[in-house]
Amino acid sequence: VEMRTMTLWRALALLPLALAASCGRESRPAGGPPNVVFFVGDGFGSGAWAVGRALGIAQGQHLVLDDAPYLGFLDTRSQDALVTDSAAAATEWATGRRGKNRVIGATPAAPLPNLFERQAKAGRGAGFITTTRVTHATPAPFYARVRDRGDEQAIAAQVVGALPTVAIGGG
User: Fold this and answer.
1) First-to-final CA distance of the chain
2) C-alpha of 134 from chain center
3) Where are the alpha helices (DSSP H) in the chain?
4) What's the pTM?
5) What are phi and psi of 64, to 5 degrees?
6) CA 30 to CA 35: how far, in whole Å?
7) Could you tell me the CA-to-CA distances from 25 to 16, 17, 34, 134, 154 in Å, in that order?
């Protein structure tokens, strides 16, 4: 694909693959996954994916994400609400545990270890690419813990302290 015809989303979808390819095998710890870059389209669920695929087919194109070697879906639910917000959903992605709406990376009892901390402990890098702000509730649970998703100053201080290998956001 020529760069002048490549859409921003197609370029962003290829970025994690380029980053992974640039890490030589000799720099990866043995066993387990290599460095992880989490690509999150805020609000991008299976419905948006289906619409994107349908539009691509109608235009004679396809989604680059459909070519990814590994894909996964996670059913997220809030501990305290019928409708799950970004904070609770992303806390579940980042920690493997259900969270409460508005709360970033923690339960009332204790903070939960997140994916980035586990990667760092294993000597691996981790990062994220998101369509929203770096301090938004969607990427924040991967590196931060706050009681209210609106406290973006506290979240910003924690992203600096966490120093993810990659932190790219829009918004």
Assistant:
1) 26
2) 10
3) 8-22, 46-58, 86-95, 115-121, 152-162
4) 0.72
5) -60, -35
6) 11
7) 16, 14, 9, 29, 36
Extract the tokens encoding 25. 């095998």
Cβ atoms of 105 and 140 closer than 8 Å:
yes
- Residue 18, judged by CB atoms within 10 A of its CB (0-12, 13-18, 19+), counts as exposed
Q: 42: Cβ–Cβ under 8 A, 6 or more apart, which residues?
A: 86, 130, 131, 132, 136, 138
pLDDT digits (tens, 9 = 90+) for 95-146: 988 999 999 987 656 778 888 888 888 888 889 898 899 999 999 999 999 9
What distance in Å separates the CA atoms of residue 60 and residue 74, rounded to the nearest whole number?
29
**Over the stretch 75-90, which tens digit does the pLDDT of each residue have?**
888 999 999 999 999 9
Taking the C-alpha atoms of 104, 108, 113 and 114 in order, what is their torsion angle to the nearest 10 degrees? -20
- Please return the burial class of 8, using the count of CB atoms within 10 Å of its CB with bins 0-12, 13-18 and 19+: exposed
Residues 119, 29 contacting (CB under 8 angstroms): no
